[in-house]
């Protein structure tokens, strides 16, 4: 059986602390089957699925040969969801749709296609998952007085992205196996 991988960027420690508070507040209103570990909070660029070590080594090599944009800032938040407004199947933090993030996503996809990975056909909606699967309760986002903590936006600097190996039976689940640095501002 091959290992499963994805490409993404971890949130910074300060954003991680904010999202831990959001998860805690959300738990007062809803229960979910899956609550990602705070060390696993990330913005996905591309899910790769199962593949060989050789393919991953080649993907890393090609990513490291690419010219990447300058490091950049984006906003994390407000909270959002996928699915039914009252009981969403995924509760997440929205990520500001900034051009450098989409440029990275596009290049990651292009390199993936050259290695035989399927191109993602769905529109890219960057987010950080806070809870998912089998929701019970009512989303605090539908009650104006309950949604206040989830409305804020927080600045985050992005200076790199990574390839992660998924360990389904471990906590945290994601192991960083390679970092790809963006160009630094002078």
UniProtKB/TrEMBL annotation:
Question: Origin organism of this chain?
Answer: Halobacillus litoralis
| Reaction it catalyzes | a 3'-end 2',3'-cyclophospho-ribonucleotide-RNA + H2O = a 3'-end 2'-phospho-ribonucleotide-RNA + H(+)
Protein name (database record): RNA 2',3'-cyclic phosphodiesterase
Say if the entry is tagged with keyword Phosphoprotein: no
Could you tell me which InterPro entries the record lists for this protein?
Cyclic_Pdiesterase, Phosphoesterase_HXTX, RNA_CPDase
PANTHER family, alphabetized: RNA 2',3'-CYCLIC PHOSPHODIESTERASE (PTHR35561:SF1)
Q: Does the keyword Hydrolase apply?
A: yes
Q: Which residues form the active site?
A: 42 (proton donor), 127 (proton acceptor)
Keywords assigned: Hydrolase
Q: Where is this motif: HXTX 2?
A: 127-130
Family affiliation: Belongs to the 2H phosphoesterase superfamily. ThpR family.
**Locus of motif HXTX 1:** 42-45
Which Gene Ontology terms cover its molecular function? 2',3'-cyclic-nucleotide 3'-phosphodiesterase activity; RNA 2',3'-cyclic 3'-phosphodiesterase activity
Identify the residues that the record assigns to the Phosphoesterase HXTX domain, covering every copy. Answer: 12-91
| Biological role stated in the UniProt entry | Hydrolyzes RNA 2',3'-cyclic phosphodiester to an RNA 2'-phosphomonoester.
Which SUPFAM superfamilies does UniProt cross-reference here? LigT-like
Give its E.C. classification number.
Answer: 3.1.4.58
Xref: NCBIfam families: 2_5_ligase
